[in-house]
Amino acid sequence: MAKGPIVWLDMDQKELDDAYDQAVYAANRDEIRKRRMAACERALKRLGQPERAAYGPTEIEKLDIYKTDRANAPVRIFIHGGAWKNGRASESSYMAEMYAAAGAHFVVPDFAAVTDVGGNLMVMADQVRRAVAWVCKNAASFGGDPNRIYLAGHSSGAHLGGTVTITDWEKEFDLPRNVLKGAILISGMFDLKAVRLSKRGQYVKFDDESEEKLSTQRHLDKLHTPLIVGHGTLETPEFQRQTREFAAAVKAAGKPIEFLLGNGYNHFEMQETMANPFGLCGYKALEQMGLTPGRLFLR
């Protein structure tokens, strides 16, 4: 096909649309989803159903809490992805087992799909921030250490997780500005300009305000959370660029950040490494919390 007018960098509209469509670059997406769902079933048989708690007034504003047997344990909150329109907390249960076995609570909030709130990403960002604030204020109620709260996110969940890290915790929630002791954000988006130009703009109602406020890279002065970010070498060019440029910007701002490169991994395979105690992201997530895979073999 002949190349059309340039829309972003050296990309025409189709190339840009493809760069924000994971299925174009990950032919095994459906197989990975089936594998992940089977892993969720196995994990729930061993762990049992999570505790379900409400962080807000609407039906979707609830979260799943998978508890460890360790007292006063650190907490890892995971923000799921799904192009802002797919996914539920229950689909992340396969990740919970690693954290619980290693000595951490694992919490996954549900939140509205952007297509259910008129395309408004601001609603989703607000829900995720309130979910995280709820965990910070209520961690002790389920055996968590409120001084050891950590965040994680993948894909659009990494985007939302990024917006969480630039929250004004003192002003908005009466919490310390460093309430999050670390975050691992994998395969995310940190500036929405290019995303707004892509086909995602057909179901997300971007405007200047949402683009500005929800572009984490533009607000690094508000960042008080040490970060780990990464992407796979088989991801789309835009998801690679987004993470790479964000990491460089955070480093240039003098904020703590570590960059991970997943050689041979596509977008969905990168998430799977977050559930493996010896995987690229799983090992780093445990290390960030001061935990090691060794405890898994001492049970």
Structure in words:
This protein has about 300 residues and is α/β, with parallel strands linked by helices. The protein has one domain (about 5-290): 3-Layer(aba) Sandwich (Rossmann fold), CATH 3.40.50.1820. The protein contains 12 helices and 10 strands. It has helices at about 15-20, 20-25, 30-45, 95-100, 120-140, 155-165, 170-175, 195, 210-215, 235-250, 265-270, 280-290, and strands at about 5-10, 10, 50-55, 60-65, 75-80, 105-110, 145-155, 180-185, 225-230, 255-260. The strands form 2 sheets. An 8-stranded mixed β-sheet has the order 3-4-6-5-7-8-9-10, with helices on both faces. Strand 5 (about 75-80), helix 4 and strand 6 form a beta-alpha-beta unit. Helix 3 packs across helix 4 (about 95-100) and helix 5 crosses helix 6 (about 155-165). The protein is globular, with a radius of gyration of 18 Å. It starts with 5 loop residues before the first strand and ends in an 11-residue tail after the last helix. The model has no long low-confidence stretch (mean pLDDT about 95).
Main features:
alpha/beta, Rossmann fold, eight-stranded mixed sheet, two-stranded antiparallel sheet, 38% helix
Give a brief description.
This protein has 299 residues and is an alpha/beta fold.
Mind sketching the topology for me?
Elements: E1 6-8, E2 11-12, H1 13-19, H2 22-25, H3 29-47, E3 51-54, E4 62-66, E5 73-79, H4 93-102, E6 105-109, H5 121-138, E7 144-154, H6 156-165, H7 169-173, E8 180-186, H8 193-197, H9 208-213, E9 227-232, H10 237-252, E10 257-262, H11 267-272, H12 280-288
Parallel strand pairs: 5-6, 5-7, 7-8, 8-9, 9-10
Antiparallel strand pairs: 1-2, 3-4, 4-6
Helix pairs in contact: 3-4, 5-6
